[in-house]
Amino acid sequence: MELSDSDHALISVIASGLPLVERPYRAVGEMVGMDEVEVLARIEALRDSGVIRRFGVIVRHHELGFRANAMAVWDIPDTEVGEVGHRLAGSDQVTLCYRRPRRPPVWPYNLFCMIHGRDRATVEETIRGLIQCHGLETYSHTVLFSTRRFKQTGARYGRPLAAEVGHG
Amino acid sequence: MDLVDQRLLNDFQRDFPLTARPYAELGEKLGINEDEVIARLDRLSRGGSVSRVGAVFRPHAVGASTLAALAVPPEELERVAALVNAYPEVNHNYQREHRLNLWFVVTASSAQAVRAVLDDISGRTGLDVLDLPLLEPFHIDLGFDLKWS
């Protein structure tokens, strides 16, 4: 899907959040120079085309008691990583699952899963269960628990609001 | 936090209504009025349990991003974390238990803009930045089930 300059302005605004007012889409429209009907139609088009993957209430795990956050990583042969990745992604306990490059010798792992839980023991148990359930015992892996969150915000896509609209 | 708050947090993480008055629509489902939905979301946002009511984009459909890591000497961690945090392009930044102890996500309008941030961080800290861009996403983001029960 081709994104116009006004789409980029709209994306910037809805990435950072809808205002909490009675007519939030009208308020968004005022920020990006669209009317309410256009805003609704563009968001729907972005959603239907898959550019927007999810639209709704975005919660913070930590504040809701999911204090343990682990990044579990595996080194899975390239011929198998797709299949293993899809299976892990299908597990309830896995929040995110990505393939990323290895950077030997510093970083030998290519499959990344984020797992959130109420405490460390629960998350460790979950990871043991995933390894067993998906037959991952023979692959090298490690678990990086987070010990401190320095920052967590929505993505900013680097397009100033209005500034680039109409330069197209 | 009562049952209405719990449902507000759990039941509207996707397919948020695209209608002129979405908060009124949530209110109908929750048996409260529009003003109360707005007041509750405002309170939950201030309290930190709601990050925002907004969109999550398919990786790389808009702009570019990467996961990056640094091996920071422990006594430098505080300073380097603050330096990394200060970039508006950095949207997540965590300390993790590993020799590579600082992990952050950089999102910008293009791959070059992402690279420029990594180079800048490397130049200012004197540390090698591990750059691990997404190659293939496997999950479908359905939100996060808070499993209240």
Automatic annotation (TrEMBL), chain A:
Q: What is its EC number?
A: 4.1.1.111
Q: In which pathway does it act?
A: Porphyrin-containing compound metabolism
Give the Siroheme decarboxylase AsnC-like ligand binding domain ranges: 64-151
Residue ranges occupied by any Siroheme decarboxylase NirL-like HTH domain in the UniProt entry = 7-53
**Reaction it catalyzes:** siroheme + 2 H(+) = 12,18-didecarboxysiroheme + 2 CO2
**One Pfam family from the UniProt entry?**
NirdL-like_HTH
Enzyme class, broadest EC rank: lyase
Q: Which InterPro entries match?
A: AsnC_trans_reg2, HTH-Siroheme_Decarb, NirdL-like_HTH
Q: Name one GO molecular function term.
A: lyase activity
Q: Tell me where the transmembrane regions lie.
A: none
Question: Which controlled-vocabulary keywords does the entry list?
Answer: Lyase
Protein family according to the UniProt entry: Belongs to the Ahb/Nir family.
Q: What is this protein called?
A: siroheme decarboxylase
What is the organism of origin for this protein?
Paramagnetospirillum marisnigri
From TrEMBL, chain B:
Q: Which reaction does it catalyse?
A: siroheme + 2 H(+) = 12,18-didecarboxysiroheme + 2 CO2
- The answer to whether keyword Lyase applies is yes
Q: Which domain of life is it from?
A: Bacteria
In short, the EC number is 4.1.1.111
Which leading EC class covers this enzyme? lyase
The residue ranges of the Siroheme decarboxylase NirL-like HTH domain are: 5-48
MF-aspect GO terms: lyase activity
Question: Is Disulfide bond among the key words of this record?
Answer: no
Record protein name field = siroheme decarboxylase
Which organism is this entry from? Paramagnetospirillum marisnigri
